[in-house]
Amino acid sequence: MRRYITEFIGTFFLVLVVALTGNAAAIGTTLMVMVFAGGHISGAHYNPAVTLAVLIRGKVSSRDAIIYVVVQIIAAIVAALIAKWYMGDMGVATMDLDGKVFKVFIS
């Protein structure tokens, strides 16, 4: 059970930092801290793609891999909902591609 809680916490904070800051240094630092904090407990996958790679290498059982992925998805959804609640309708990103401005609204 500790492994699954560790995966939840690590994935939650990683997605929350990505959603709230988008800053590469903050994301990298958060990932580094979470790997050091939880790597010895769960392997610190924090991402379904990493869990799949570890499964393919045979370092985790199919049962654990499925539970890890489900926990990671739930943690990501919870973090995204909290980020959306915190940011409200302020989440607007603009890009200028060849003189055309594209707006992306987070809703």
Structure description:
By secondary structure, this protein is mainly α. The protein has helices at residues 2-20, 24-42, 48-57, 62-87, and strands at 92-97, 100-105. The protein has a two-stranded antiparallel sheet with strand order 1-2. Strand 1 and strand 2 (100-105) form a beta hairpin. The relative contact order is 0.16.
Distance between the termini: 34 Å
Number of strands: 2
* C-alpha geometry: globular
Q: Write down the overall mean pLDDT.
A: 86
Q: What would you call the structural class?
A: mainly alpha
Largest sheet: 2 strands, antiparallel
Oligomer: single chain
**What's the Cα radius of gyration?**
16 Å
Order of helices and strands: HHHHEE
Layout: helices, strands, pairs:
Layout: H1 2-20, H2 24-42, H3 48-57, H4 62-87, E1 92-97, E2 100-105
Antiparallel strand pairs: 1-2
Helix pairs in contact: 1-2, 1-4, 3-4
What are the defining features of this structure?
107 residues, mainly alpha, 11% strand, two-stranded antiparallel ribbon
Q: What would you say about this model in short?
A:
By secondary structure, the protein is mainly alpha-helical. It has helices at 2-20, 24-42, 48-57, 62-87, and strands at 92-97, 100-105.
